[in-house]
């Protein structure tokens, strides 16, 4: 399966009622064989308007962190969300919506086969950790720790939107991105075994 094929499936999805309320599906975008995938919660208003992930204010912060802290190009990573449709008024995703939509994210992860999975915010972190069998408590406890699971490295951080309205959290997100940068640099072209040395 290719990313295009997954996208095609998403673009006609009716697995939960959100398809009726959205303006556009937001499947995600980026490179097919990206080394790193960023997973947010769900599209917001701007994303719903345009059908592209993380293009509003939170997206600007994410793009800035990718380009300036990680020194990668946005088009060289993959950016997506747990939900591919916007929940009305940006309300929290429901368990049913997450369950219905998760197979798309899992297929995207399978096809891209990224080395690093970055979960942005508690919904993405809880959903992805649950899938990988990693216990999740709270985002403030679990963030900033790089974990190895099935040959992949997972890290959670606060959602960029949280960083926008609470500046101290923005600094924490930056710190976590610096850790990711250091990790990528240190493990370039290497097969690594873990790795508690980055842990808090
Ligand atoms: N917030 C998210 O979680 N995802 C987006 O794409 C935009 C805002």
UniProtKB/TrEMBL annotation:
<dbReference type="InterPro" id="IPR005122">
    <property type="entry name" value="Uracil-DNA_glycosylase-like"/>
</dbReference>
<dbReference type="Pfam" id="PF03167">
    <property type="entry name" value="UDG"/>
</dbReference>
<dbReference type="InterPro" id="IPR005273">
    <property type="entry name" value="Ura-DNA_glyco_family4"/>
</dbReference>
<dbReference type="GO" id="GO:0006281">
    <property type="term" value="P:DNA repair"/>
</dbReference>
<dbReference type="GO" id="GO:0051539">
    <property type="term" value="F:4 iron, 4 sulfur cluster binding"/>
</dbReference>
<keyword id="KW-0378">Hydrolase</keyword>
<dbReference type="GO" id="GO:0004844">
    <property type="term" value="F:uracil DNA N-glycosylase activity"/>
</dbReference>
<feature type="domain" description="Uracil-DNA glycosylase-like">
    <location>
        <begin position="27"/>
        <end position="178"/>
    </location>
</feature>
<dbReference type="GO" id="GO:0046872">
    <property type="term" value="F:metal ion binding"/>
</dbReference>
<keyword id="KW-0234">DNA repair</keyword>
<dbReference type="InterPro" id="IPR051536">
    <property type="entry name" value="UDG_Type-4/5"/>
</dbReference>
<keyword id="KW-0479">Metal-binding</keyword>
<keyword id="KW-0408">Iron</keyword>
<comment type="similarity">
    <text>Belongs to the uracil-DNA glycosylase (UDG) superfamily. Type 4 (UDGa) family.</text>
</comment>
<dbReference type="InterPro" id="IPR053423">
    <property type="entry name" value="Type-4_UDG"/>
</dbReference>
<dbReference type="InterPro" id="IPR036895">
    <property type="entry name" value="Uracil-DNA_glycosylase-like_sf"/>
</dbReference>
<protein>
    <recommendedName>
        <fullName>Type-4 uracil-DNA glycosylase</fullName>
        <ecNumber>3.2.2.27</ecNumber>
    </recommendedName>
</protein>
<keyword id="KW-0004">4Fe-4S</keyword>
<keyword id="KW-0227">DNA damage</keyword>
<keyword id="KW-0411">Iron-sulfur</keyword>
